[in-house]
Amino acid sequence: MVVVIASLKAVYAAAAIVVLLLLVLFVYRESKGFKVVRYSFVNGKLKVGHFKMAFISDLHDCELSAGNKDVLAAIDEEAPDAVIFAGDMVTSSLEPGYHDSKALKFIKAVAEKYPVYYGIGNHEEKLRRCPEVHPGEFEKLLGRLREIGAPLLIDEKASAEEAGVDFYGLDLEHDYYRRFKTRHFPDDYLERKLGKNDTSKVSVLIAHNPEHFSQYAAWKPDYVLSGHVHGGIVSLPFLGGVISPQLKLFPKYDAGVFEEGGSVMILTRGLGTHTVPIRIFNKAEVVIIDLYKESDKTTKEV
Ligand SMILES: [Fe+2]
Prior knowledge:
The chain has seven helices and 15 strands. It has helices spanning 2-31, 69-78, 102-111, 122-129, 137-147, 189-194, 213-217; strands at residues 34-42, 50-56, 82-85, 116-119, 152-153, 156-160, 165-169, 202-206, 223-226, 235-236, 240-241, 256-260, 263-267, 284-292, 300-301. Strands 5-4-3-2-14-1-15 form a seven-stranded mixed β-sheet. β8 (202-206), α7 (213-217) and β9 (223-226) form a beta-alpha-beta unit.
């Protein structure tokens, strides 16, 4: 009898180890790699027939493969007219020498080939906000980004003139990233920071935090490009992303396309991880956005 019980215990222990290993393997596989996600829209304000954007957010200084070469290859395959970074490409816990970090090397490689429009995220913002922790690092980052041709858009506009597309980089203050409760900004906040939206052009608002989409939409951008939420880290069927960086469960905006008041928000799941280094049913992504001047059967009217 004693021998039987001992054997049963050994079988259960072995089964538990196998289940645990399978679980670890599953999480590892889910958290690795990335996919290319596509959206297309028609916008009559475009000055060219077709304008293609590659959109990435939240790399968090990660390397998905050596030198992020797979990501670069995916961008090259698309040959976009512009590459947009919607913040948190670096992290706020930078080691000395980060100017040669994985993120900066990746950004440089992209900027050597494509026009880059880089909006600020809360991690870049934290470098500025906490100079006692990171003395001079924010200024160094700004200088390095300018050098490599990917200047950070801090409440600034940059244009792809020939295509009639304006990119606005919103510098959202720390107050509007606070946990648990959404703080609304004053109604004239965007206009004070970015000026009037030139609605004769296609306007792309790069705003890292999607939580304020309703307020962004009041400024009437055609498109809002956001990240920050990492798809909710774990995505469940029917329920979507589980948790946001503001520690909200099942956030309204987790990933995908949202529409309000004539504006469309494209919210990416991001490319890297931070704090919680896993993704489940929530593959990292590079987003490709095709804008067409005229409609055809394959595109979505906006
Ligand atoms: Fe973020």
